[in-house]
Amino acid sequence: MSTADHVRVKDLFLAACEQPPEKRREFLDAECGEDDALRAEVAELLEFHEEEPKREASAAASLLEDLESITNYRVLQKVGEGGMGEVYEAEQTEPVRRRVALKVIKWGMDTKEVLARFESERQALALMNHPNIARVFEAGTTDSGRPYFAMEYVKGVPITEYCDTHRLSTDERLNLFIEVCEGVQHAHQRGVIHRDMKPSNVLVTIRDDRAVPKIIDFGVAKATSQRLTERTVFTELGQWIGTPEYMSPEQAEMTGLDIDTRTDVYSLGVVLYELLVGAQPFDSTTLRKAGFDEMRRRIREDEPQRPSTRVSSLGGDSEVAAQRRRTNPANLARELKGDLDWIVMKALEKDRTRRYSTPMDLSEDVRRHLRNEAVVVSPPSAVYRLGKFVRRNRVAVAAASLVIAALILGIVGTSIGLVQARREAETSRQVVRLVSGILGGMDPGSAYGHAQSIDEVLDRGVARIDRELVRQPLVRAHLKSIVGRVYLGLGEFDDSGPLLTEALELRLGELEESHPDVAESLNALGIQRLNVGRLQEAHDLLERAVAAYESTLGPEHIAFGMALINFGFAQDRLGRYNDALLTLDRARAIVEGAEGPDSLSAAGVLFNQAVVYRDLGETERSFELSRRCLEIRERQLGPDHTGVGWAVFALGLDYGFLGDRETASRLHERALEIQESALGGNSHAASLPMWRLAILRSADGDLEAARALLERALQIHQGHLGSTNPDVVLILRSYGHLLHRLGDRSAARRAHEEGLQLTEKIYGTEHAEYAMALYGMAYHEYAVGNLDEAWRIWEQCRDVLERELGPRAKRLGSTYYSFACLAALQGRRAEAMDWLRQALDSSGWVWKGILEDTDLDSLRGDPEFEAMMDEVRGRLAKREAVLAGVTR
Amino acid sequence: MTRDVAATVTEIVAGLGGGGSADRASAEELLPLVYDELRLLARRYLNRERPGHTLQPTALVHEAYIKLVDQSRVNWQGRTHFFAVGAKVMRNLLIDHARAKGRAKRGGGRHRVTFDEGLTPFASGELDVDQLLAVNEGLDRLAELDPRQARVVELRFFGGLTVPEVALVLGVSQRTIEGDWTHARAWLKRELSRREVL
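^ Those are the sequences you sent over. The predicted structure of the assembly is below.
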């Protein structure tokens, strides 16, 4: 068929549709004339078009008839209609004469899916037998195939209405509510979720002079209508068939998944709220006026007011609500405060794992309250309220920090009132306990994140600390210390410095130097100083921290061990490698004694031991340590933690140094990925894998990729971090080499010069790192052909290294080797051989490239030289064996 | 990352208006962004899929909308355009998925997709893999004859758009859309009946 034909058929079809059905054929005859094909086509389409309405029409007509076909019921009147079904009051004649409510599935709802669910539900319903559930006497199918239920006909009014008209007191209401819970519990035990719990589905009827709540609509809701509700909600905004006021957050999610019995617990919570307060947690009018998305958002996110708060804020309605409970507003609020607040709020938890897990647990707590026993639920702690805040604000990893800010703004604010009411010392302890409890897990090492708004919020938090805690220096110090450490964890070294300094000063003003809080401040500030390149200062602070911990907490305390780790790292950065190793050995003994060899703390020692051995050129040892460190951290932290990212990076370094570029590359990619998602792409932690990846890319000849990576890394250090982190010199050095390879000699030189200057500023001239900067400079001169100048700088480099590391240190190997190359290039063969010998004598030093290095071509063939090459091969094989041992 | 995408999407959606050609061009830019999000959502959904649960495309589009768009900055026209893009994406994703499932195992009753009742050519709103593929092929054939009409079905079926919303997106009158829709339904039913999947 052509497009033109299609359009013609369509037009004619639509025109025919405008006609009344009975006139359509006639209309077609007139329109089509001789064109039988066209007529047949349109007629066929019309048949398909008419199929549905025809069925609907017949459905309506046969409704009553169909109901009457259930022979032992006499239909009296229609009493209700929902989205799915209709309810009729009917009289059953056999086997007993009784009033029943007959609920019939509507026409058009009897799809295969619905019917299947209906059938499986039927069995559960048959099992239900509970005084608080409207009994289902019978379920079956009408002659024409429509499913129906016959239920106990409950002559009653909704529970809220009953309670109000009878002016039931709070306790009386609670007793009724307990029965409702029991009914729902009964159903849950039989695998039936109500999913539409609300007062109008709980009718109170009088049986033997006693008010009995009866839950109606059970099972049918689950069998059928829920799915329809979900669908309908998405179809058109105006047609929300469910009941938003009672809908659980997970129902409001509407992904159609995962509704379990706890959804009923939530709805029961809303019913309880309403029974107690006389209003719903979310005001019905505002909720419905809010619009679809907003309504769902509120259900999922907004925290309702506590019942006691709500009841006092109802204005004139408070009075009414109180009267209906035979009391006055003040007393009502008092009654609700405490237990009942907590019970209701626990039932209304957004996160269902925080709710009562069953209606029974809920009712048990209500009972305990009635018996004046302690309820199981405790007030929702700030910790998990914040936890919820975090969950709701998962956007970026900023959450953790926002929490702190919110906390400081919130808790400090509320605690001010307490300050005046109680003894200050007590209050301070409380605040401190609270805040540190919440933030305990947010020290550097576990709190990370990055977002612009954090700074702002934290700043406000800090300002508030200063303003409102003027006379509580220790509390102030504590809060500042926390915020400072959070900044540190975020890699915001510049922001953390002043806070940590102030915290330290405040504490020193009030406490002894040996006090653990002072030690904590010294320790944190020391770490900060390490990261902004103030190494000596860092060393001194950390030394004091170590001393303070040891004198107060003793030489076996874990805090002392942890401080030693940092101190050891500071010693390493200062180039005191042997001291660092001793310190770390000590730390390891303490930490392993206190927490075991597989603890995270132990992994921290391993990580730093690896750093030192790497600095000494002892790659085989650092490799072992890095592997164990990663193993522990992965096991304890999962795959995505920044601590794991660091360990992966460290292991990548070792693989790279051992010559396995492929594995190294893979590890650095992974490290980068972890850090980017944990801390953001602008973090210090991400800059290092970038740096290493750049070196590997450049070795593979992909210079542009290397350039992009290094420029990003430099951008982080020079654009983002502010102060000079020591690691920037590593990146600058690699950048210098890369620029040279890219052919930009002058830029390369500038990079090396800048690197040298920075290195001197951070490390001073008597430091292996300064020697490495000289090495970079020398290599540059060598690469551009200034061999004499290169020689001169390499001599400086050698002198520093020999002084710092000793003349046979492994790291000197490369420098001696450089002399060998220069000498060979300049035709001084004997001297070259001597330098080469000296290089190989540097504690097992080796380099893969020696075997093919063209600089040494003039030496090749010489038996002495070849003997040395065999030695090189032997060492390389040994090194490979280290890697092979791992793969095995 | 997500934040940036969300900002971009909101930016675009907020700029959408009455549905001129400029709007259509901007809406095109949404496609890759929305695609990524929906693919993630769908994958997450399908990964934890359990028997008895079915995928609801309009629900997923809705979820993506909530995640990506700052609703305070968007009017109903913007929202509609977003859903129109979502419809297109969902169709692609569902068909890819259905094909993969169809290859993996024929006739597995687990993988069903739920559409708005009354919008499918079938008695039930729940379609299995075969039915879904059949509808898709039917739509492809319809698109050859009348691209706009096929688009109307796509928008309603996979995006849950109402007639006025479709009219906005396609820039034609509601009456035209209604005609397209009524005819397309009958047409599709007939097509599918010929293939015996009804």
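Residues 53-62, 219-241, 378-457 of chain A have pLDDT under 50 and may be disordered. Residues 36-61 of chain A form the longest helix (26 residues).

Shout if you want it in another format.
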